[in-house]
Model the fold of this input.
Amino acid sequence: MAITPGSHGSTPYQKRYWRVVSEYVRKRDFEKYGTCVSCGAHFDDWRAGHAGHYIPWSRCNAWFKYDWRNLALQCARCNLSLHRSGADVGHAFAEELKRRYGDDILTILAHDNESLRGQKMEVPDIVFRAEKLYEKN
Done:
């Protein structure tokens, strides 16, 4: 699967790591839920969905961009919605994250994201994390 230049990472290793994380999240959520985290649309195959971010990629710091707790299976319409952050899509995503991980998850995500501000992603760490995800599958 080719990765669009400029999407999800600034290095080839980051782009490859995104592919691994995205596949893991989409498969995990498809097997467990089978629906879009935001609107409830049903998926016939995990490949039909996106790995959507609750806190948008543009506001994520370092490793947090790949944090599986901030990601969920989402339909393309919801994931690409320009009005997600204040709309029903964002609210539904937040409520589902709270159901899955507990009421304090949004605070934890905000804290964890902020704690990574200014950190860099080194290649050995990316490879190590990717291998750990493959072991989960």
